[in-house]
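Sample A.
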Amino acid sequence: DGPGMYRVTHQGGLPVSQDVSRSSALKARLPAGEMVEVVEVEARLDQGRRRGRIASPAGWISLHQHGGACRLDFVEQVVSTEDSVARSRPTLGASSPLASTSRCSSVSALDGAVI
Protein backbone atom coordinates (compact mmCIF):
# COMPACT_ATOMS: atom_id res chain seq x y z
CA ASP A 1 0.00 0.00 0.00
CA GLY A 2 1.22 3.43 -0.83
CA PRO A 3 0.16 6.82 -2.14
CA GLY A 4 -1.98 6.85 -5.28
CA MET A 5 -5.56 6.69 -6.49
CA TYR A 6 -7.99 4.38 -4.69
CA ARG A 7 -11.64 3.41 -5.17
CA VAL A 8 -13.86 2.88 -2.10
CA THR A 9 -15.10 -0.73 -2.16
CA HIS A 10 -16.77 -1.00 1.25
CA GLN A 11 -20.52 -1.26 0.63
CA GLY A 12 -21.37 0.84 3.67
CA GLY A 13 -19.14 3.71 2.55
CA LEU A 14 -16.04 4.93 4.33
CA PRO A 15 -15.77 7.56 7.08
CA VAL A 16 -13.15 10.31 6.74
CA SER A 17 -11.56 11.25 10.09
CA GLN A 18 -9.93 14.55 11.05
CA ASP A 19 -6.68 12.89 12.17
CA VAL A 20 -4.87 9.57 11.73
CA SER A 21 -6.68 8.18 14.79
CA ARG A 22 -9.96 6.44 13.97
CA SER A 23 -11.45 8.05 17.08
CA SER A 24 -10.85 11.61 15.83
CA ALA A 25 -13.73 13.78 14.63
CA LEU A 26 -15.68 12.57 11.58
CA LYS A 27 -15.32 14.99 8.64
CA ALA A 28 -17.21 13.22 5.87
CA ARG A 29 -18.35 9.85 4.55
CA LEU A 30 -17.28 8.56 1.13
CA PRO A 31 -19.78 6.39 -0.77
CA ALA A 32 -18.81 3.06 -2.36
CA GLY A 33 -17.32 3.66 -5.80
CA GLU A 34 -15.86 7.07 -4.89
CA MET A 35 -12.31 7.74 -6.13
CA VAL A 36 -9.84 9.30 -3.67
CA GLU A 37 -6.19 10.28 -3.78
CA VAL A 38 -4.15 8.85 -0.90
CA VAL A 39 -1.16 11.14 -0.35
CA GLU A 40 0.34 9.43 2.73
CA VAL A 41 0.10 6.01 4.39
CA GLU A 42 0.68 5.70 8.13
CA ALA A 43 3.25 3.02 9.03
CA ARG A 44 1.60 2.11 12.35
CA LEU A 45 -1.70 0.23 12.48
CA ASP A 46 -4.60 1.87 14.33
CA GLN A 47 -6.70 -0.88 15.95
CA GLY A 48 -5.56 -3.30 13.25
CA ARG A 49 -6.24 -0.89 10.41
CA ARG A 50 -3.82 0.68 7.94
CA ARG A 51 -4.70 4.39 7.60
CA GLY A 52 -4.17 6.70 4.66
CA ARG A 53 -4.35 10.50 4.41
CA ILE A 54 -6.47 11.67 1.49
CA ALA A 55 -6.30 14.93 -0.42
CA SER A 56 -10.03 15.67 -0.73
CA PRO A 57 -11.91 15.83 1.44
CA ALA A 58 -8.80 16.36 3.55
CA GLY A 59 -8.59 13.70 6.25
CA TRP A 60 -7.79 10.05 6.99
CA ILE A 61 -9.46 6.80 5.92
CA SER A 62 -8.98 3.11 6.71
CA LEU A 63 -7.39 1.32 3.74
CA HIS A 64 -7.66 -2.19 5.17
CA GLN A 65 -7.94 -4.19 8.37
CA HIS A 66 -5.66 -7.02 9.44
CA GLY A 67 -7.24 -9.75 11.50
CA GLY A 68 -5.98 -13.25 12.09
CA ALA A 69 -5.29 -14.98 8.79
CA CYS A 70 -7.04 -12.44 6.57
CA ARG A 71 -6.95 -8.89 5.36
CA LEU A 72 -10.17 -7.02 4.68
CA ASP A 73 -9.81 -4.24 2.12
CA PHE A 74 -12.02 -1.14 2.29
CA VAL A 75 -10.51 0.33 -0.89
CA GLU A 76 -8.71 -0.92 -4.00
CA GLN A 77 -5.75 0.85 -5.52
CA VAL A 78 -6.25 1.96 -9.11
CA VAL A 79 -3.17 1.34 -11.24
CA SER A 80 -4.23 3.58 -14.12
CA THR A 81 -6.95 6.24 -14.03
CA GLU A 82 -7.21 6.06 -17.85
CA ASP A 83 -8.36 2.46 -18.07
CA SER A 84 -9.40 1.97 -14.41
CA VAL A 85 -7.52 -1.31 -14.16
CA ALA A 86 -7.46 -2.04 -10.44
CA ARG A 87 -4.99 -3.94 -8.29
CA SER A 88 -6.34 -5.35 -5.10
CA ARG A 89 -6.09 -8.34 -2.80
CA PRO A 90 -9.24 -10.47 -2.78
CA THR A 91 -11.50 -9.97 0.20
CA LEU A 92 -12.19 -13.20 2.03
CA GLY A 93 -15.90 -13.98 1.98
CA ALA A 94 -17.90 -16.89 3.28
CA SER A 95 -17.05 -18.98 0.21
CA SER A 96 -13.30 -18.57 0.68
CA PRO A 97 -11.42 -21.62 2.00
CA LEU A 98 -9.65 -19.35 4.52
CA ALA A 99 -12.83 -17.69 5.74
CA SER A 100 -13.52 -20.31 8.38
CA THR A 101 -10.20 -19.53 10.11
CA SER A 102 -10.53 -15.80 9.66
CA ARG A 103 -11.74 -13.19 12.14
CA CYS A 104 -13.20 -11.22 9.23
CA SER A 105 -14.97 -14.05 7.49
CA SER A 106 -17.61 -11.93 5.79
CA VAL A 107 -17.62 -8.43 4.33
CA SER A 108 -21.32 -8.07 5.15
CA ALA A 109 -20.50 -8.51 8.84
CA LEU A 110 -18.83 -5.09 8.80
CA ASP A 111 -21.41 -3.23 6.69
CA GLY A 112 -22.84 -1.43 9.71
CA ALA A 113 -19.59 -1.24 11.67
CA VAL A 114 -17.60 1.90 12.31
CA ILE A 115 -14.49 1.51 10.19
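Sample B.
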Amino acid sequence: GLKPDEKSYNGVINACAKEGAVERAEAWFWHMVASGCKIDMIAFGSVMHASSKVGDVERVEYWIDEMQSRGLKPNLVCFNIMLNACAHGGRYTKALLWLERMVE
Protein backbone atom coordinates (compact mmCIF):
# COMPACT_ATOMS: atom_id res chain seq x y z
CA GLY A 1 0.00 0.00 0.00
CA LEU A 2 0.85 3.66 0.04
CA LYS A 3 2.44 5.51 2.93
CA PRO A 4 0.61 8.65 4.15
CA ASP A 5 2.56 11.90 3.87
CA GLU A 6 2.26 15.30 5.55
CA LYS A 7 -0.70 16.29 3.37
CA SER A 8 -2.51 13.05 4.20
CA TYR A 9 -2.10 13.49 7.94
CA ASN A 10 -2.93 17.20 7.83
CA GLY A 11 -6.13 16.39 5.97
CA VAL A 12 -7.22 13.97 8.69
CA ILE A 13 -6.22 16.39 11.46
CA ASN A 14 -8.22 19.16 9.74
CA ALA A 15 -11.25 16.90 9.44
CA CYS A 16 -11.06 16.19 13.17
CA ALA A 17 -10.61 19.90 13.90
CA LYS A 18 -13.72 20.81 11.90
CA GLU A 19 -15.72 18.41 14.07
CA GLY A 20 -14.15 19.76 17.26
CA ALA A 21 -12.69 16.29 17.92
CA VAL A 22 -9.67 17.53 19.86
CA GLU A 23 -8.43 14.17 21.15
CA ARG A 24 -8.64 12.58 17.71
CA ALA A 25 -6.84 15.52 16.09
CA GLU A 26 -4.07 15.28 18.66
CA ALA A 27 -3.80 11.50 18.26
CA TRP A 28 -3.37 11.92 14.50
CA PHE A 29 -0.76 14.62 15.07
CA TRP A 30 1.26 12.16 17.19
CA HIS A 31 0.77 9.43 14.54
CA MET A 32 2.24 11.91 12.07
CA VAL A 33 5.22 12.52 14.33
CA ALA A 34 5.76 8.78 14.86
CA SER A 35 5.64 8.14 11.12
CA GLY A 36 8.62 10.43 10.58
CA CYS A 37 6.75 13.04 8.58
CA LYS A 38 7.99 16.62 8.69
CA ILE A 39 6.06 18.56 11.32
CA ASP A 40 5.45 22.08 10.07
CA MET A 41 3.32 25.13 10.75
CA ILE A 42 0.41 23.58 8.88
CA ALA A 43 0.37 20.55 11.17
CA PHE A 44 0.54 22.71 14.28
CA GLY A 45 -2.11 25.08 12.95
CA SER A 46 -4.42 22.17 12.23
CA VAL A 47 -4.13 20.65 15.67
CA MET A 48 -4.43 24.07 17.37
CA HIS A 49 -7.58 24.77 15.37
CA ALA A 50 -9.29 21.76 16.96
CA SER A 51 -8.73 23.16 20.46
CA SER A 52 -9.64 26.66 19.33
CA LYS A 53 -13.05 25.57 18.09
CA VAL A 54 -14.00 24.40 21.57
CA GLY A 55 -12.47 27.44 23.31
CA ASP A 56 -9.68 25.50 25.02
CA VAL A 57 -7.18 28.33 25.38
CA GLU A 58 -4.79 26.36 27.59
CA ARG A 59 -4.58 23.58 25.02
CA VAL A 60 -3.78 26.03 22.23
CA GLU A 61 -1.09 27.49 24.49
CA TYR A 62 0.31 23.98 24.96
CA TRP A 63 0.58 23.56 21.19
CA ILE A 64 2.26 26.93 20.75
CA ASP A 65 4.80 25.89 23.39
CA GLU A 66 5.28 22.53 21.65
CA MET A 67 5.77 24.27 18.32
CA GLN A 68 8.37 26.62 19.80
CA SER A 69 10.18 23.70 21.45
CA ARG A 70 10.64 22.32 17.91
CA GLY A 71 12.18 25.56 16.70
CA LEU A 72 9.10 27.01 14.99
CA LYS A 73 7.98 30.57 15.70
CA PRO A 74 4.24 31.35 15.86
CA ASN A 75 3.03 33.24 12.80
CA LEU A 76 -0.05 35.39 12.30
CA VAL A 77 -2.22 32.33 11.66
CA CYS A 78 -1.20 30.86 15.03
CA PHE A 79 -2.01 34.09 16.84
CA ASN A 80 -5.39 34.30 15.11
CA ILE A 81 -6.15 30.72 16.14
CA MET A 82 -5.32 31.68 19.72
CA LEU A 83 -7.50 34.80 19.57
CA ASN A 84 -10.36 32.69 18.21
CA ALA A 85 -9.89 30.22 21.07
CA CYS A 86 -10.14 33.13 23.50
CA ALA A 87 -13.31 34.32 21.77
CA HIS A 88 -14.92 30.86 21.85
CA GLY A 89 -13.92 30.44 25.49
CA GLY A 90 -15.09 33.90 26.56
CA ARG A 91 -11.56 34.86 27.64
CA TYR A 92 -11.37 38.59 26.84
CA THR A 93 -8.44 39.37 29.14
CA LYS A 94 -6.43 36.46 27.79
CA ALA A 95 -7.17 37.65 24.23
CA LEU A 96 -5.74 41.07 25.06
CA LEU A 97 -2.57 39.46 26.46
CA TRP A 98 -2.11 37.43 23.28
CA LEU A 99 -2.78 40.46 21.11
CA GLU A 100 -0.04 42.32 22.99
CA ARG A 101 2.30 39.34 22.59
CA MET A 102 1.55 39.27 18.87
CA VAL A 103 2.64 42.86 18.28
CA GLU A 104 5.84 42.59 20.37
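B remarks: The first helix runs from residue 6 to 19. DSSP finds six helices and no strands in the chain.
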